[in-house]
Amino acid sequence: MTETEFDDVFDLMKTGVYVITADDGSKLGGCTVVWVSRCSFEPAMVAVFIAPRRVTHDIIKRARHFCVNIIGERHLETAKEFGLRTSANVDKYAGVSFTKGQSGAPILKDACAFLDCELVQEIEIGDHTCFVGKVLAAEKFSPEKPLVYRHEDYYPREKQAGHEG
Ligand SMILES: Cc1cc2nc3c(=O)[nH]c(=O)nc-3n(C[C@H](O)[C@H](O)[C@H](O)COP(=O)(O)O)c2cc1C
Fold first, then answer.
1. Model pTM above 0.90
2. Residue 50 CA: which ligand 1 atom is closest?
3. 1 CA distance to ligand 1 centroid (A)?
4. pLDDT score of 148
């Protein structure tokens, strides 16, 4: 987890919690992110910001697609499984139910909705890459409310910073 001098203010910017998934044909990738934004109405596009050291980062680059899985509020554990462990060490998909979207990216059963995307642009920004996806398909599975990010759900209370940047 990276702590910065502006965390007190950035922490006021509330976000949802998403698991970004991809399949490059030989490996499934998936990591929890909070840095996600809609960025175009027409065509519908979404931007996700992922650090190059994440295993999922290079899987998205190779796959040329990704899926934004919007996690339901009952599935905090899923967000932790995908956000506090790396696929470099564990098989995050063991025991996880999913289907494949039009793009080929995994759609998690624990998601309450998803945006399945074709990767159309990648921009290096500081210590993250902005992956811009054109939405190929989107669906809401359940009326469940989406999970909202709360720092204390993931990190010890004494550490007041953003994600494991
Ligand atoms: C709540 C939460 C939010 C996160 N948000 C981001 C994010 O926006 N961008 C990012 O690059 N990493 C983010 N992370 C960190 C990655 O999810 C984490 O490093 C993960 O282990 C990477 O998995 P991978 O190496 O299998 O891709 C977040 C982690 C948590 C717990």
1. yes
2. 11
3. 10
4. 97
Query: Which region, left, alpha or beta, applies to residue 95 given φ > 0 means left and ψ of -120 to 50 means alpha?
Result: left
Judge contact between 10 and 88, C-beta under 8 A: no
Longest pairwise C-alpha distance within the chain: 43
Q: In the prediction, which pLDDT does 2 show?
A: 76
Q: Which residues pair with 114 in a beta bridge?
A: 69, 139
Residues 6+ positions from 77 with CB-CB distance below 8 Å = none
DSSP H stretches of helix in 14-54: none
Say if ligand 1 is within 6 A of residue 54 CB. yes
pLDDT in tens, 85-116: 999 999 999 999 999 999 999 999 999 999 99
Answer yes or no: is the C-beta of 58 below 6 A from any ligand 1 atom. no
CATH class of 17-150: mainly beta
Tokens of residue 41, six digits = 């109405």
Residue with tokens 């921009």: 123
- In short, whether 163's Cβ falls inside 6 Å of ligand 1 is yes
Residue segments in the chain with a per-residue pLDDT below the cut of 50: 159-161
pLDDT score for 160:
46
Domain boundaries, the chain: 17-150
